[in-house]
């Protein structure tokens, strides 16, 4: 019995590192488009639609996902000294949701609106 238990534990410990590398990619795939839109809507209040608002609030569109995720987790854990309301907002999300939001905003081209406006102005 002890040998079987030890073998099972050894096998589980051997598999855990492999599972850890798959978790970030699973987090991004577990939320539907509608769920992501709802979660990202909370960010739009301050960061603008698609995270592109320029001004006193940082633009988050196009920033590396790892940077955004680390920052969001720091807010959630009260490790960011420059937080205004972000520490309270981040606490409303799970770590997986924060990772998915970071991936969502990192995939947005921060210059897309400017390119569209320039193209529209040239056509007029």
TrEMBL record:
Q: Which residues form a coiled coil?
A: none
Entries under Gene3D superfamilies matching the protein = Cytochrome c-like domain
> What keywords are assigned to this protein?
Electron transport, Heme, Iron, Metal-binding, Transport
Taxonomy, superkingdom: Bacteria
Q: What residues does the Cytochrome c domain cover?
A: 22-109
* PANTHER family xrefs: CBB3-TYPE CYTOCHROME C OXIDASE SUBUNIT FIXP, CYTOCHROME C4
What protein does this entry describe? Cytochrome c, class I
């Amino acid at each position: 019995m002890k040998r079987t238990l030890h073998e099972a534990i050894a096998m589980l410990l051997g598999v855990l590192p492999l599972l850890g590398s798959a978790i970030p990619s699973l987090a991004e795939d577990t939320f539907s488009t509608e769920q992501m839109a709802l979660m990202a809507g909370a960010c739009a209040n301050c960061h603008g639609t698609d995270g592109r608002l320029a001004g006193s609030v940082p633009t988050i569109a196009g920033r590396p996902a790892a940077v955004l995720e680390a920052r969001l987790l720091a807010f959630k854990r009260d490790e960011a000294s420059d937080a205004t309301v972000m520490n309270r907002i981040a606490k409303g999300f799970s770590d997986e949701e924060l990772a998915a939001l970071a991936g969502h905003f990192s995939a947005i081209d921060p210059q897309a609106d400017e390119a569209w406006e320039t193209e529209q102005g040239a056509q007029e």
